[in-house]
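Following up on my earlier message about thiamine diphosphate. Here are the inputs again, as you asked, copied directly from the submission form:
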Amino acid sequence: MKSEDYEIMNEVEYDIAWCPGCGNYPIRKVMQQVLAELKIKFQNVVFVSGIGQAAKMPHYLKVNGFNGLHGRALPPAIAIKSANPDLTVIAESGDGCMYGEGGNHFLHTILRNPDITMLVHNNMVYGLTKGQASPTSRKGFVTSVQTTGRGGVTNQPFNPLALAISLGASFVARAFIGDNEESKEIMKQAIQHKGFSFVDVFQPCVTYNHLNTYQWYKENTYYLPEDHDISSQTDALTKALEDDKYPLGIFYVRDNVSTFEEDSGIYEEDAKPLFQREVDKKKLKKLIDSLADGL
Ligand SMILES: Cc1ncc(C[n+]2csc(CCOP(=O)(O)OP(=O)(O)O)c2C)c(N)n1
Ligand code: SF4
Ligand SMILES: [Mg+2]
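Thanks, got it. Here's what our run produced:
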């Protein structure tokens, strides 16, 4: 497919309601380029999101999409991949959605290692609901709720990379969308990786976050050195804990780890995707009865 063929992804029925200058626009553009360059047919991609500005992505790209509840992007993403492993499944949502309301799913998805990609638009704020602090807001960040009089945000920010690395996530990276080219390379590798790939993307919210601006991200980030050992969990964790300046790039990769789909045994004896199989009602009844027996 030619790159122009991906222009069709712009043929959406909604007006894009993001603010001018929002970091969500370049993420959307880079994602289109990623799919085009990887030659993944857009018909074979599913974007799964929760609620928020970032979570509008499935509406703003002509791809298959599932837009569910706030914090609940990951469970349907795992279900979709399990039912049809031929699909490229990308769970994409905001920092509040994925780390706050969806934090528990984040933990357990890492442990299950489904072959999906999780892309978090990390603008360090709740954008959609007009600027309250999110789990990644910096200490001292002032909002309409976390006011100056109360010293702004008082707690330490959540560190998603350190958590993912410590739990042994199979691909962990951070990008800054102010650098389209590097972000594209990181996202390409994440999608190609077999297993759970997690990319935290620094994304400015130009309306509600006047602290973490494009300039701030530029001045407070640097790329991991070329000799960074992506196979070392301890090196990756050390880098992820840095917060004087935030490293960008691929922190940690574990290859050849079995996936949730493999471990579930769904495809051990039958390669036919789950969604195409006849439901064996007798087998189903037996399963339900056996579960009822165990109650
Ligand atoms: C269970 C639940 N709690 C709270 C909300 C209200 N709510 C909707 S979006 C949102 C925050 C979105 O922030 P984030 O995920 O960072 O996305 P952004 O808008 O910044 O892209 C909140 C709190 C909700 N819809 N459902
Ligand atoms: S409020 Fe922030 S995150 Fe939402 S569209 Fe505007 S700039 Fe983007
Ligand atoms: Mg946010």
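One observation from looking it over: The pocket of magnesium ion (ligand 3) is lined by residues 94-96, 123, 125-127, 134 (CB under 6 Å). Hope that helps, and feel free to reply on this thread.
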